[in-house]
Design a protein that fits this description.
Elements (H helix, E strand, L loop, with lengths): L15 E5 L3 H13 L3 E5 L2 H10 L4 E5 L7 H11 L4 E5 L4 H9 L4 E4 L4 H15 L8 E3 L2 E4 L4 E4 L2 E2 L4 H12 L4 E3 H9 L7 H14 L9 E4 L3 E4 L69
Parallel strand pairs: 1-2, 1-3, 3-4, 4-5
Antiparallel strand pairs: 6-7, 7-8, 8-9, 10-12, 11-12
Helix pairs in contact: 1-5, 2-3, 6-7, 6-8
Length: about 300
């Protein structure tokens, strides 16, 4: 039987975060940092429990481990996003770029690779939640049959509503604000994600996903064009650019310094199986208290 998801709480309530990780130390440390940052935190240690918790109390955001017993994080993400546009940040101990890209392909808004600083994770949660809130002001943007309502966070193509993730919506809005201008992936990461650094494949994946939803033929994109050696350009039919402008204009609602490392120091990381938090990195099975770094256990044969 298909689960129905509970509505969100009142707008002035503390955001609810669902933390899904089968490592109790990682889950405890992450939940502790989020709790101290003022969030309501629910926890689950496997996929089916996560879906049950999400159905009972719809979260504002999910922090989701990729490797889970019973049902992996990719399937959990697919099922949650099938019911509601809940932002998802994935945690992964895998170093393979294909796994990170697959997480983005199924709808994750961001990912963090272990080991990571819990303070950085809190900053990313704040960044994603900030961008998920409806804009207080903002004119409707239209071009080439596309229409974006920033206040209502709704987008349509030829009158049909588009199912966009948080980042896809921001990316489309940015392109519509800047028709005819070419932007590098670094520019888009800074202006749309609000980060000065990061994995540029994140931008590539989101552009590909967005093309799949707004282009008539995604294999031959007409609207979001690749500019070789530069990046991408939104080119609505009939638009005649006055000339190239270097990227750097910062529109309202974009380019805020709320990415990793903004506004706070990035603390050391959390290590699975560490006994507690401390002010230094914790190695597996360490009993010292630390301000941890989430690190996967060492592989067999490693010192």
């Amino acid at each position: 039987m298909q689960q129905s998801y509970a509505p969100l709480g009142p707008p002035d309530a503390s955001p609810r975060i669902l933390v899904v990780d089968d490592d109790p130390t990682v889950a405890e440390v992450v939940a502790g940092y989020l709790d101290r940052a003022g969030y309501l935190v629910d926890r689950a240690d496997d996929g089916p429990t996560a879906l049950t918790r999400a159905a009972a109390h719809r979260p504002d955001l999910v922090v989701l481990d990729l490797m889970l017993p019973g049902m992996d994080g990719l399937e959990v993400c697919r099922r949650i996003r099938a019911h509601a546009p809940v932002p998802v940040i994935m945690l992964t101990a895998r170093g393979d770029e294909d796994d990170r890209i697959l997480g983005l392909e199924v709808g994750a808004d961001d990912y963090v690779t272990k080991p990571f600083s819990p303070r950085e994770l809190v900053l990313r949660v704040e960044s994603v939640l900030r961008r998920s809130r409806p804009a207080v002001t903002g004119r409707r943007l239209t071009a080439a049959g596309l229409s974006v309502d920033p206040a209502g966070r709704r987008a349509t193509k030829n009158g049909t509503e588009l199912a966009l993730t948080l980042r896809e919506f921001d990316l489309l809005s940015f392109f519509l604000r800047h028709p005819g201008r070419a932007f590098g992936r670094e520019d888009l990461m800074r202006e749309v994600w609000g980060w000065d650094f990061g994995d540029l494949s994140t931008v590539t994946v989101h552009v590909r996903r967005l093309r799949g939803k707004v282009e008539d033929d995604p294999a031959r994109p007409r609207l979001i064009q690749t500019v070789w050696g530069v990046g991408y350009r939104f080119e609505p039919a009939g638009f005649e650019p006055a000339g190239f402008e270097p990227a750097g204009f910062e529109p309202a609602g974009f380019g805020s310094a709320d990415g990793p490392g903004a506004g706070a120091e990035s603390g050391p990381a959390v290590t699975p199986h560490s006994a507690a938090e401390s002010d230094s990195a914790v190695t597996p099975h360490s009993a010292a208290e630390s301000d941890p770094a989430v690190t996967p256990p060492p592989a067999a044969g490693e010192e």
